[in-house]
Amino acid sequence: MAKGSDTLWDLAIAEVEKRENPDDDGKRLEFGEKSLLFMGNKNGGKTTIILRCLEREETPKPTLALEYTFGRKARRHNAPKDIAHFWELGGGTSLLELIQIPVTSNNIKSLAVVLVLDLSKPNELWPTVEKLLQVTRNHVNKILTKLEKTNPEVATEIKQRMWNNLQKDHPDYELIDPFPIPLLIIGSKYDIFHEFDSEVRKIISKTLRFISHYNGASLVFTSKSEALLLKARVLISHLAFGYDKSKSLSVDHSKPLFIPAGLDSLSQIGPPPAPDSDIGKMSANTPLELWKKVFEKTFPPKRFCDLQDTNDPAQDLQYAEYEVDVMRAQKKQELEHYRRNASQSWKEMDF
Q: I need a labelling partner for 222 at 20 to 30 A (CA). Which of 85, 121, 154, 339 fits?
């Protein structure tokens, strides 16, 4: 296999070699190599968005656990191609322990998170955002704490970078809490969302604007429409390949939102969408907690266990393998035979 080949196997070997050197702490990652971790609602459209960003005409398949692919693009003619590693976490909020695989001290400097939220399921919105961002933030902060001891310059650079999206004279500079690494929030299935009542759309849009701004994130609404997918690709390409930031802005709640990080403000978003009398009765310690209570009053959240992935992957036809399935069926029969015999023997025992 020729050195410098673009095969997945070559890239996998290179990735392993980097990870096997624990003392690098990210220093070996060259400019032009980025990593993106996609997470969000189960069946929310993450795979479709990734395939369209990489211009691959493939039929999306459900993501079982954690899947990897990559893309290569040159920013100008005859220039070396930049590499972007795309990780996709399946299962909604049920497999969060797997984020330790793509989120490491080796790539934290070049890593971004893309949170894909299904706009057609508002009752799942807040618990999905809260769980995914909280666990990921905690894991990233642990890595940064370690880096402060081993490579303080990199740790300081990463922390400061997230404040660079906001001008120091921005009125919300002291009021927000940016996510520790670049974050993009994508509202998917806008075509379904657009059919919702206008007041419902306004509540969801304002709430997502607040969540994004509070976390120092970019926000975009998309669907299977090529025009909307193109808008999402602009923000993803910026994170993945270093393309220029978009300066366009759309905050009209009757249209798909497009808000690059740092271009929104709490004054433009306005207060939580509830009567002042209701807000006055709610006890909250932070603005985020207040918005949560207001939103969940309109959209009662699904219980966390309802958001778990309960499907058995072994029964999924897309992963069928004849030899394995025959052996599995045989072992299942042996187990049932053992259970019957054991049950009979236990009944005969004198306890």
A: 85
